[in-house]
Amino acid sequence: MFRTRSLALTATAVAGIVALSACSSGTSSTASDEELTPFTLGTNSWVGYGPWYVAQEQGYLEDEGIDLEIFNYDEADYVALATTGQVDGINHSINDWLVNYNQHEFELVLLEDVSLTADAMIGGAGVDSVADLVGKEVAFGEGGVSALVYYDALAKNDIDPADITTVNLEPADAGNALIAGQVDSAVTYEPYVTTALTANPDSKVIYSAGETPGLISDGLFVSPEYAEEHPEVIEGLAAAWDKAVAFTLDNPEEAQTIIGEATGVPADQRETMFEGLEFYTLADSADMLADGGAFGADIMPSIQAAMLAAGILDAEVELGDDAIDTSYLTTVLDR
What we know:
Helix content: 25-40%
Largest sheet: 7 strands, mixed
Structural class: alpha/beta
CATH architecture of the largest domain: 3-Layer(aba) Sandwich
CATH superfamily of the largest domain: Periplasmic binding protein-like II
CATH topology of the largest domain: D-Maltodextrin-Binding Protein, domain 2
Shape: globular
Number of domains: 2
Strand content: 15-25%
C-alpha cells in the first residue's frame, strides 16, 4: 500500500531530484556562512507533506544548517528507493510501513499528519452510498492508500469485493475518470478530491479515511546510518517541521500559495486544500509516539485492524524496539 506514486529507478528518476535549498527565500539564516549538510528526502505531491515546502520557503531548514533536496517519486515500491541509498529519508504513510516492515531499516522519527476527509471515496450520479457500489465500477490505485480506504469501506459495509468492478488508476487519473463519467466512483486524495467534487456536480463523498481513526497517517522515516552520523540534521528537520506547521496554521492563505505552487494545485482550488487534514506539531508527535501514547495504544491498532479486515495484512505486525526513535523530538523540545 503506498501513498507514494510510481517509482522508476532510472536516470530519469535521479534527474527528478530538486534542490530546494538553493531557491530558499528565507531572510535570516544562522548557517548562512557555514557549509550546509545535505539531506535528500523522498516525497510526493500529497498536501500533508506541504510544510516541508513552507520550511524551505521561510528559511527554517537553512537556519538549522540543512541543505534539503526533494526526490519526487511516483506510486510503486518505495522500498526500492529506501534500499538503494538514493534518499536519506522518506515521507510515507504508516500503512505502507506495515505492509513493507522488515524490508528496509528506515525508522520512524516524526508523525506528520492524519487524513480525515482528505482521502475519500467519491460517488458519481446514482452512487449515494457505499452500498450503491455493488455492480458498479470504482477507480483507484491498487497499490496506493486509496486501496486501503476502498477495502475498509467495503469491510465496514459487509460488501464482497467480487461484487464490484475495479479499475486500477493513479489518484489524479481516478478522479479524472469520474469527472469524465468513465467510472461510477473513484477513491483518491487531496488535491484530487476537491478537483473531482468541483468539476462534477453529481459527485459527493460517500466514505472517507476519517471513519476509521488514524487510518491514513503519515510520518518521516530516516536511514538509521544517516541519523547516527548526523543526529543534528534529524533534530533540525524536526525543528523546521514544527516551525513550518506553526506558520501554516497561523498563515493558511500564504501557506496554501507556497504549497500549491510547489505541488501544482491550481490557485482556484487552494482555499480548501487543508480541509479534512490535520498537521501534527512536534509536541503532538512526541506525545503520540511516547510509550503509552496514542500511536501505540489507539492509532496503530486501528490501522492494523482495518488492514486485517480488508485482507491487506494476514497477521498483525510486531514492531521492533528500533522501529521508532523519539530521541530527536525530545532533544528539540528540551532546547
